[in-house]
Amino acid sequence: MSVEPAVATDRGAQRPPVDWARARNQVYAAGQADALVPVELPLPEADGLTLAEPLTTLTDLPAFPTSSVDGWAVRGTGPWRVVGRVLAGGTPPPLPENGTAVEIATGAMLPDGADEVLRIEESTRTDDGRVAGTPRTTPEWRSPGEEAYAGEELLPAGTPVGPGVIGLAASCGYDQLRVRPAPRAALLVFGDELLTAGPPQAGQVRDALGPAVPAWLRRYGARVDPADVIGPVADTLSAHVAALRTALAGADLVCTTGGTMHGPVDHLHPALAELGADYVVNTVAVRPGFPMLLARVTGPDGRNRYVAGLPGNPQSAIVALVSLVAPLLAGLQGRPMPLLPYVTLGEPVAGRGNYTHLALVRVDPVLGTARPVRHVGSAMLRGLAQADGFAVIEPGGTGETGARVPLVPLPLLPSVGS
Predict the structure, then answer these.
(1) Options 2.20.28.20, 3.30.200.20, 2.170.190.11, 2.60.40.10; CATH of 66-142
(2) Tell me, what does this protein do in biology (predicted)?
(3) What are φ and ψ of residue 33, in 5° steps?
């Protein structure tokens, strides 16, 4: 999908909000267009990153016939005369003639001339030292190429790298992987009314997003260092511009909290205009979370960085994260667009007219039914802390009991290595 840029101005709210599904597609396409440059890393360091190219086999898997059991590799009919022994890692000589056998360990290379493998527990020894028994009809070894042939694609580009991928790559003979690095993210917290420690007090509230947003960003694959969380930033235009400029110098994505409207101390739109930003998305037709945005700033090096403006209300901010930031980070990492599973509503969920409604729900893991949680106001976090995700009620729709609706799942654990 093409992205139509609009120059950032402090009159951005006059534009109609973007449909929620279209907004997700637009920010993902922007991230794809600016996907991070791949790097070559040793296997352990690739954990949690993303394959930048398909993983193909460098050799047949297995590369040679290997015994799948401890026993005897035999030639011809028995009983068999034992002529040697082969362990994993050794190269056995061929069996010389019918009626001969070698003792073989699991994972050892099958000698040329072997017809079958007899399990050790199903064998006996004759008085003259020969081996007797009846091999099973099913082969007890793995043939070359049984798992994959040389050059076969095992995993596509865009696959997240975890322990299974690392082990598979090692088995194929890789020492390094070509991967896209984790995007570096920063957070600027706006709002003179915010406290960074202790309980709320008259006129001031505790900042809940400064500690929480970096944890969400890590769950979507970003890297956030403690020094990259700044705030509260003073409620002046000059402070906003300076903080954004500093953060953009070292980050691929800068998230901000608050200031996305056009009130007397909402300086984000003017600050973006001063930085020469253009909007990828400016306001989304979704409830909660309506005043969210994603803007693009081209740096002196010609590379694009992004600013995600999250609303100041905590739950609305997380709606903006799952709506705009998660698809953007997927694109920057070269990962597929996050697909939304479907759930069945176990209770009705009201629609929001012409807006998409993202409703916090808990999902029964056995029945697959979703039920709305309580305490879900824009400024509340109690419901979010108990929820599994957001049920998506489309514009003009009503979520009646039994309806099948998309679910935006909330990730439970950080992306490995982020």
Answers:
(1) 2.170.190.11
(2) Catalyzes the insertion of molybdate into adenylated molybdopterin with the concomitant release of AMP.
(3) -65, -25
Whether pTM exceeds 0.70: yes
Q: Which CATH number is 41-60+154-180 given?
A: 3.90.105.10
**Per-10-residue mean pLDDT, the chain, length 418:** 52 73 97 97 96 94 92 93 91 92 94 94 93 92 90 95 95 95 95 68 72 93 93 91 96 92 84 96 92 95 96 91 97 95 94 93 92 80 87 92 95 61
> What is the CATH code of the structural domain delimited by 6-36+182-332?
3.40.980.10
